[in-house]
Write a structure and sequence with these properties.
- Helices cover 78% and strands 0% of the residues.
- The chain is an all-alpha fold.
- It has one domain: Phosphate transport system protein phou homolog 2, domain 2 (Methane Monooxygenase Hydroxylase, Chain G, domain 1, Up-down Bundle).
- It comes from Streptomyces calidiresistens.
- Pfam families: PhoU_div.
């Protein structure tokens, strides 16, 4: 590690950890979505919306602190980028749940459960990783595994699309609805990878 001539602000680390913990809460709500009925899904959507608002509050707190801090733990642009990409994850998960409710989806297609399980594992890893930004240590396995999970999510997404378009069980409107949902879940997986790539970039710069 490079020798630091000045102390670094530590409040950012707490905010990033809070954002990641909130994302983990969101991923658990996605798991609850599986197998829930219409009434249960509406209630899950309300809790997901509250979690998304909490994520927004944390993101705004990072930006506020960034604008008022002279000393930061690492590059200001990287702090902004990491906060924004963590926020993207929560936005995509909330959007997916909202679409399921708005479109009144009776049954999610086979494979969506695999998408959500991948997202939940990525959320667990992200929540475990954020506190390590204080020391910039023990993070390599995190971004390697999240990248592996994103590759897995890509494969699941492709199989889901093939199922929707070739199964013959769905009409055109239903295909459009379901495709939008599985595409948003794939965007969430991509956003997890972008967070991991940002963390890797930060560690490389700071080492």
């Amino acid at each position: 590690m490079r020798f630091r001539m000045t102390p670094r602000e530590t409040g950012f680390h707490d905010l990033f950890a809070a954002a990641a913990d909130n994302i983990l809460t969101g991923s658990k709500l996605l798991l609850e979505l599986l197998g829930s009925d219409a009434e249960g899904r509406a209630e899950i959507a309300e809790r997901m919306r509250a979690a998304e608002h909490a994520g927004d509050d944390t993101t705004h707190a990072v930006y506020h602190q960034l604008n008022s801090s002279f000393i930061t733990p690492f590059d200001r642009e990287d702090i902004y980028r990491l906060a924004a990409r963590l926020d993207d994850i929560m936005d995509f998960m909330e959007e997916a749940v909202d679409l399921v409710v708005l479109y009144r989806i009776d049954e999610l297609p086979p494979g969506v459960d695999q998408q959500i399980q991948v997202l939940n594992r990525a959320a667990e890893l992200t929540a475990e990783a954020m506190p390590h930004l204080r020391t910039m240590e023990n993070l390599t396995e995190y971004w390697i595994e999240v990248n592996r999970l994103e590759n897995q999510a890509d494969r699941v997404h492709r199989r889901l699309l093939a199922h929707l378009f070739t199964n013959g069980a769905y009409d055109a409107v239903e295909i459009m609805k379901l495709k939008q949902i599985v595409d948003v879940l794939e965007e969430a997986a991509d956003a997890f990878e972008q967070v991991a790539n940002t963390v890797e970039s930060i560690v490389v710069k700071e080492s």
